Amino acid sequence: MFIEMPIPIFPSFLKIDISDIPALVAGLALGPIAGFMVEFIKNLLHLITSTQTGGVGELANVIVGGSFVVTSSMIYRKNRDAKSYIKAFLAATIVMTLVGSIVNYFFLLPFYGQLMGMDAIIGMGKAVNPKVNDLLSFVLWFIAPFNLLKGLILSILSVPFFKKLDNILKSK
Fold first, then answer.
1. How far apart are CA 93 and CA 97, in angstroms?
2. What stretches pass through the bilayer (predicted)?
3. 8 A C-beta contact, residue 65 and residue 20
């Protein structure tokens, strides 16, 4: 989580990191609960050591990243082959995008808005995309595409791990 990459087409607090990969590997190898626990622990450690969002970013990462890890590991667990792996990551990306959008709209962004000011958040979005003028447009223009992109990146970056861990994963 300490290595984050901002993406110029998104507000500055939305950053891509690959810290979900260890949780993903744990979920695929040991099951969804193990994957979620790794997700939870890494965010707890980040919260204790270097949060910049008052815990909101870590909570978002537990919920949204957890939805990706749990979905992919549940689907892959049923049939451990390459076809199931692809289905797992496609479904997990869709679930993560939906969960991220819903949770951000109803809970996370309003809570973060109380800490930072909702006008400031919308302003960050408007600075990048003038079509953003309220919370719903912020979610539609930034949160949903960001989570879709993050899911695709995680899925692609996980392929080398899958190839190396395939024998281990099949033996579990």
1. 6
2. 21-38, 58-76, 88-108, 138-162
3. yes
CA dihedral 23, 24, 25, 30 (to 10 degrees): 80
pLDDT tens-digit readout, 5-18: 888 889 887 888 88
CATH topology assigned to domain 16-157: Arp2/3 complex 21 kDa subunit ARPC3 (1.10.1760)
More confident call, 85 vs 141: 141
Q: How far is residue 137 from each of residues 14, 73, 134, 157, measured CA to CA in Å?
A: 16, 31, 5, 30
Instruction: Give the closest residue to 144 by CA, choosing from 97, 79, 99.
Output: 97
Query: Token pair of 150, please?
Result: 């993050």
CA gap 143, 120 in Å, rounded? 16
Residue 135 identity (one-letter amino acid): L
